[in-house]
Design goal:
The protein has about 120 residues and is mostly beta strands. The protein has no helices and eleven strands. It is about 0% helix and about 60% strand. The model has no long low-confidence stretch (mean pLDDT about 95).
């Protein structure tokens, strides 16, 4: 199977920065698109950013200009650089990836990493 493990979350003051990482491991042929989602307390999970295997990126309007998604295909890793953090960015951040296993693509999720932004 495929495992996604996030890291890099923590507590930061408003205006600060954090860098999240997510590493994919296990038995797969290739990792295709990867992305980040977040879920704040009492709210639904929302999409944050997306990156294709070819490094084309897209962002939610709420984070555009502040967050940058990138990836290292050799390391099967995706990153989320978060700058100018706001209290409303507080959430559990989840990594998502499409992995090709036995000629089929499946979606996988990480366990999440907490990001807390204090005012």
């Amino acid at each position: 199977q495929v495992q996604l493990v996030e890291s890099g979350g923590g507590l930061v003051q408003a205006g600060g920065s954090l860098r999240l990482s997510c590493v994919a491991s296990g038995r797969f042929f290739r990792i295709n698109a990867m992305g980040w989602y977040r879920q704040a307390p009492g709210k639904q999970r929302e999409w944050v950013a997306h990156i294709t295997r070819g490094a084309s990126t897209s962002y939610a309007e709420s984070v555009k200009g502040r967050f940058t998604i990138s990836r290292d295909n050799a390391k099967n890793t995706v990153y989320l650089q978060m700058n100018s953090l706001k209290p409303e960015d507080t959430a559990v951040y989840y990594c998502n990836a499409g992995a090709v296993v036995s000629l089929q693509e499946y979606a996988y999720w990480g366990q999440g990493t907490q990001v807390t932004v204090s005012s």
